[in-house]
Amino acid sequence: MKATVLLGSLLALAAASAEVFFEETFDGNWADRWVPSKVKEDLGIFDVSAGKFFADSEVSKGLQTTQDARFYALSAPMDKTFSNKDKDFVVQFSVKHEQNIDCGGGYLKVLPPGVDLEKFDGETKYNVMFGPDICGPDRKVHVILNHNNVNHLIKKPIIPPSDQMTHLYTLIIKPDLTYSVLIDNKEEATGGLLEDWDILPPKTIKDPEAKKPEDWVDNATIPDPEDKKPEGYDDIQALIADPEAKKPEDWDDEDDGEWESPMIDNPDYNGPWEPKTIPNPDYKGPWVHPEIPNPEYKEDKDLYVYESGNVAFDLWQVKAGTIFDNILITDDAAYAKEFAEKTFGKYQEAEKEAKEKFDEVEKKKQEEEEAKLAAEAEAEAENEEVEELDADKEVTEESKSADEIVVETVTPVPEEPVKEKEAIKDEL
């Protein structure tokens, strides 16, 4: 089994303290563990594949989208329903956009228990939605948390990689209301649930009864009443005639009109006059709106807690080919890290080398195809040239044949000359 090969003695030691609620490497009878949604008839079909390039033909196999411009909906029950109260909540999986995705999702959803998986779709309630979403230049890692049936999107931008390699995404939610997002086992974002999501109303709000006093002075400076505009200041023009310009020698006033020198900026012009400013003696500083406790705020130390029972993919992809693998839901970040090293880190360099070889083969194929097309185009051009020459030759032959046609000329028989009248008389 693929899972047996991947998990070594180190993971076995880590697992002694960790609780794993879901672990999927898409080996064996994976289809028996996953439930296709029956909400729509034209949903995209998933298959298992290592892709076009891979580190290992078996280990690299994962769940792949196979049809362009489709919605995908697939889910699976966890080994058991669990609550992450007083525990870390870790969601981890890998994504490989080997099709160089142009627009589509690559995220995973964690669902509560009791969901009818055959009716799962985009409207089904979820606890957490996590993973990359790419559409053109818009790239983000979604971290959406549901609280009281409202989905809250993280406010902090997290940018995912946009290449064709496999990347690992890890979300860790802690009981102290902090979180971390890792990409390829490196921390990309961290902070607090209260600060980076608008899950709860603010603790304080501006006092609706408070208003800035009408006599409040918040201008730090005022025009200097002693400063006067210099005499003649307004007579200085913004533009003046260029003193270096000369009338062209070939300028004809009658044909070209009266010559005028081009205008340039006046170095003596300093713009509209404004008086100098001085500190305002009545300045009180910026007015700060007083705040009061928000009556709608209610502390919730358990807002990180979820009852979970299923995982699911709910995706739209314009160009299919994404491969998902090594899904892990656990309560132990250390175990997740070791699992990542065994299933992802170990194969990074091998996949990179496989990608380079794949690119070389593809480049050679492209060059050969381009050479083939060029040869075909050249041959076609030569055939057209030969056909033109043959056509010209045929026309020439036809003209020559017409010139060689023999026209029979009838030679008139010379008539006997008319005898003179006198000779005729003599004969008579």
From TrEMBL:
SUPFAM superfamilies noted in UniProt:
Concanavalin A-like lectins/glucanases (SSF49899), P-domain of calnexin/calreticulin (SSF63887)
Q: Does the keyword Zinc apply?
A: yes
Sorted alphabetically, the keyword list is: Calcium, Chaperone, Endoplasmic reticulum, Lectin, Metal-binding, Repeat, Signal, Zinc
Which cellular compartments is it found in?
A: Endoplasmic reticulum lumen
For the region Disordered, give the residue spans: 205-232, 358-404
Q: Which InterPro entries does the UniProt record give?
A: Calret/calnex, Calret/calnex_CS, Calreticulin, Calreticulin/calnexin_P_dom_sf, ConA-like_dom_sf
The Acidic residues compositionally biased stretches are 377-391
A Pfam family name for this chain? Calreticulin
Compositionally biased tracts (Basic and acidic residues): 205-215, 358-375, 392-403
Signal sequence residues: 1-18
Predominant place of localization: endoplasmic reticulum
Similarity section:
Belongs to the calreticulin family.
Protein name, UniProt field: Calreticulin
* Organism expressing this protein natively: Basidiobolus ranarum
